[in-house]
Amino acid sequence: MSSRQEILEKIQQLRLDQTELPTIPEFKNPINTEEEFKASIEANKGEVISQEKLMSWISESGFQKILNFSQLINLNTTYARIDDAHELDQLQVAIIDGQFGVGENGAIWITNEQVPFRAIPFITEHLVIVLPKNEIVPTMHQAYIKTSSQSYSFGLFIAGPSKTADIEQSLVIGAHGAKSLRVVLV
Amino acid sequence: MSHSKASTDFLRNTEHAKWHDETLWMIREKRDLASQKVPEWENLRTLASSIKEHVLSNLDQLLLEFEANATKNGIQVHWAKDAQEHNQIVLDILKKQSCAQVVKSKSILTEECHLNPFLEKNGIEVIDTDLGERIVQFLHQPPSHIVLPAIHLKKRDISELFHQKLQTEKGNEDPYYLTQAARTHLREKFLKAKVAITGVNFGIAETGEFVVCTNEGNADMGVHLADVHIACMGIEKLIPRRNDLGVFLRLLARSATGQAITNYTSHFRGPEKGKQIHLILVDNGRTEQLGREKFRNSLKCIRCGACMNTCPIYRRSGGFSYQSTVPGPIGSILSPGLDLKKYSSLPFASTLCGSCTDVCPVKINIHEQLYEWRQEITKANPNHAEILSMKLASGIFKSPLAYRISGILMRKLIKNLPDSLIYNPWNVWGKGRKLPETPQESFRNWYLNHRNNEQ
């Protein structure tokens, strides 16, 4: 007998009475989602900045390696063509579009539609996400309703930069992934 | 070794034990603040608990649905009845890829299966990539907490360790500096790895996708750069609908560390072009636990660690004192199901205060199950000395004369006998406990005297 069959039979032999699956209510919260979203991003150690500030940060920092995948912001990309995500180890800035944000926690939804390689939001030194102002939902419940008919192969909520507190509970920004997250609301 | 004996080691360094206690309590307080910001918090806990209740009552059907949908998406699903089979499946995939070095993000299941030593025995180097896990791996230690693997260590220890392993400056204890050293060290491993292993936080039957949560981004760094992703999942990690994620993700990080959400929440529905995803569904004792009516709902656990942070015993005894993969209150109700003899002292490592139950995001009645396990364990391994002393006490309490005589005797004896005789091995209650000072006279005498005075 295969392990699959064995496991399934062991469960079936218990003949447990099936309990009802509850319906999830809407949980409508009367909140200012944009303000809450900004506060959430900051709590996660990200930053919400204007488009002008983004441009001046990029020019002042003198970054050499930038990739822009945003449809909402015009900026020239350094790399002509990438064949493999490993080539992006030295990538300094990646700019991508977010589909929408979540007010209660600052999470921003992106899928494989936004990036040619899944590694990009992680391998880049700095991450910039451009997000339409009117695309912010209050809680995760609305977020899942909004994406229920999507057919992505990879979906991701990003809520801040890579971080850790594994050394004596001291918060350090920049563990393995992006060392900073800037969100531009347009 | 019993839990109380093992915790003696931890308590030897009083300063460190105090830090451990206070730090975990601080995390518990952060959890309180975060949960209080969500008006429907209690409602979410009830929902999460009943969703998991449904999962456990319908597990076979949901597993089949999950398998069918995952397969349709291009994920290769494997089934493992125990740890050994799980480890063999992982090894076979690695061999097929001719992979000698694998990166792994946090997975309590692979700890439970002792995957690392198994792979190492078979000539494969495993690199744990979560910072805390890498630290304890360097020390050849298991994690001491399921969310905070290196919470038993101080930065002094880590600085010394990194000086030896990663050639950091001697004496530099700056957490940022040490983290950057680990980043550089692990970046190189990520770029080289052909296969990456992760755990699974949630598997969704409806869509066949699975979700992995991290703050460091190490799971994603591993899998997106590797050709093959192996995801190891306990069969109880299923949830029926994608919408259920809304409930669980609102509870998970808030309960774990007081964050509103982990910074990365990755949804894997299918492999990237030209790559592979293997998902291993593991039983390893879960179906047995499912059959134990009193302990069944321990399988609802989403591994947030809130019960550890709040537990007065865990905070003051450290994760290693439990000597089981999952320590703390939840570990003390899961582990006896795996090996009743080995883990027989764990359900007693509790004051039964119920704080674990109060913070549990899926409303597992942890303290009640601890009490139930005590009954099972006492039935299985009766302590004859304790039974005898209880019988003796019962006889004395039943007879007023015997009670009076023993009272007079004990007041004299306890005062005058040496401790070595009072705290003898037969006095099972004397271990770790001290008798109160004996009064001059019995209450009965005192009452009789005072009543006479007043009249």
From TrEMBL, chain A:
Q: Which residues form a coiled coil?
A: none
Top-level taxon in the UniProt lineage: Bacteria
Spell out where the chain crosses the membrane: none
Q: Which InterPro entries match?
A: FTHF_cligase-like_sf (IPR024185), LUD_dom (IPR003741), NagB/RpiA_transferase-like (IPR037171)
Do you know which Pfam families this protein is assigned to?
LUD_dom
Every copy of the LUD domain together lies at 73-186
User: What PANTHER family does this protein's entry cite?
Assistant: LACTATE UTILIZATION PROTEIN C
Stated name of the protein: L-lactate dehydrogenase complex protein LldG
Native source species: Algoriphagus ornithinivorans
TrEMBL record, chain B:
Query: Is the keyword 4Fe-4S in the record?
Result: yes
Keywords per UniProt: 4Fe-4S, Iron, Iron-sulfur, Metal-binding
Read off the Pfam families from this record: Fer4_8, LUD_dom
- Chain ranges passing through the membrane: none
Q: Name one GO biological process term.
A: lactate metabolic process
Q: Where is the 4Fe-4S ferredoxin-type domain?
A: 291-312
Cite the InterPro entries for this sequence: 4Fe4S_Fe-S-bd, 4Fe4S_Fe_S_CS, FTHF_cligase-like_sf, LUD_dom, LutB/LldF, NagB/RpiA_transferase-like
Q: Which GO molecular-function terms appear in the entry?
A: 4 iron, 4 sulfur cluster binding; metal ion binding
Q: What is this protein called?
A: L-lactate dehydrogenase complex protein LldF
Organism, by scientific name, is: Algoriphagus ornithinivorans
The major lineage groups are:
Bacteria, Pseudomonadati, Bacteroidota, Cytophagia, Cytophagales
